[in-house]
Specification:
globular, 34% helix, alpha/beta, TIM Barrel, binds D-xylitol-5-phosphate, eight-stranded parallel beta sheet, 9 helices, 18% strand
Length: 226
C-alpha cells in the first residue's frame, strides 16, 4: 500500500470550552496539521456548539488551517460568514440543502476549499457526481452531533471505495481530494482508516482527553512506512 502523508485534525468539540483559545493553540503547538471546528445547530444534529463568531475569534490567534465542519441546515445562508471568519475548508452534508453542487460552487467562489460530508447512512453516490468541486470528502464514522462515540467499523468499506474513486479521479487529471474520517478515531481505529485509504483524521476525545496532546497526536500517525 503506498503511504501518503496523514493530516491530524483535532476536534475542538472535545476541548475545555472555557479555555478555547488556549486549547486551540496547545494542539497547534503539539503538531496538529489542521484544527477541526464542529458547527452544530440543534436542528440538523441534536446538539448546539458554536458559530462564526467563535471561529473568527480563534482565527486571530492561530495560523494552522481551519477545517470547518458544518452540521447545520440550511447551510447556504452561512457560508459567507464562515469564509469571512477565517475558515480554510468548509464542509457540508448533502442533506443540509437542496443543491449540493451550488453550495460547493459558492464555497469555491468564496475562495475556500470545499468539502462534502457523508453520514454513516449516506451512500458514496451522494458525492460521485460533484467530485470536480470537492477538495475534501469527510466520512463520518459515527452519527454526527456528539464527541466520544464508538467508531463504526461499517464505514471502513466506504473509505476503501472512496479511495479508489479519488485515485481514479486524480489519475484522470482531476484536482487532488483529501479523504478525511471523523468520529471515534483512536490510535487503533486510525491505523485501520489509513489502511483503508484515509489521509486525514479528525480526533476529539483521543487528543483533548489525553494529558499530553503532542503524544496523543503522534499516536494517531501511521507507524509503518512502506
Ligand atoms: C461529531 C463531530 C466530530 C467529533 C469527534 O459530530 O463531527 O468531529 O468531535 O469526536 P470524537 O473524536 O470524540 O469521536
Ligand atoms: Zn466533525
Amino acid at each position: 500500500m503506498p503511504q501518503r502523508p496523514v493530516r491530524i485534525a483535532p476536534s475542538l468539540l472535545a476541548a475545555d470550552f472555557a479555555r478555547l483559545g488556549e486549547e486551540a493553540r496547545a494542539v497547534a503547538d503539539a503538531g496538529a496539521d489542521w484544527l477541526h471546528l464542529d458547527v452544530m445547530d440543534g436542528h440538523f444534529v441534536p446538539n448546539i456548539s458554536f458559530g462564526p463568531v467563535v471561529v473568527k475569534a480563534l482565527r486571530r490567534h492561530l495560523s494552522i488551517p481551519f477545517d470547518v465542519h458544518l452540521m447545520i441546515a440550511p447551510a447556504d445562508p452561512y457560508l459567507a460568514a464562515f469564509a469571512e471568519a477565517g475558515a480554510d475548508c468548509i464542509s457540508l452534508h448533502p442533506e443540509a440543502g437542496p443543491h449540493l453542487h451550488r453550495s460547493l460552487q459558492t464555497i469555491r467562489a468564496l475562495g475556500k476549499r470545499a468539502g462534502v460530508v457523508l453520514n454513516p447512512a449516506t451512500p458514496v453516490s451522494a458525492v460521485e457526481t460533484v467530485l470536480d468541486l470537492c477538495d475534501l470528502i469527510l466520512v463520518m464514522s459515527v452519527n454526527p452531533g456528539f464527541g466520544g462515540q464508538s467508531f463504526l467499523d461499517s464505514q471502513l468499506g466506504k473509505i476503501t471505495v472512496l479511495r479508489r474513486m479519488i485515485d481514479a479521479h486524480e489519475a484522470a487529471g482531476g484536482q487532488p481530494i483529501d479523504l478525511e474520517v471523523d468520529g471515534g478515531v483512536t490510535a487503533e481505529t486510525a491505523t485501520r482508516c489509513v489502511a483503508a485509504g484515509a489521509d486525514a483524521l479528525v480526533a476529539g476525545t483521543s487528543v483533548f482527553g489525553k494529558p499530553d496532546y503532542a503524544a496523543a497526536i503522534r499516536a494517531l500517525r501511521p507507524k509503518v512506512l512502506d
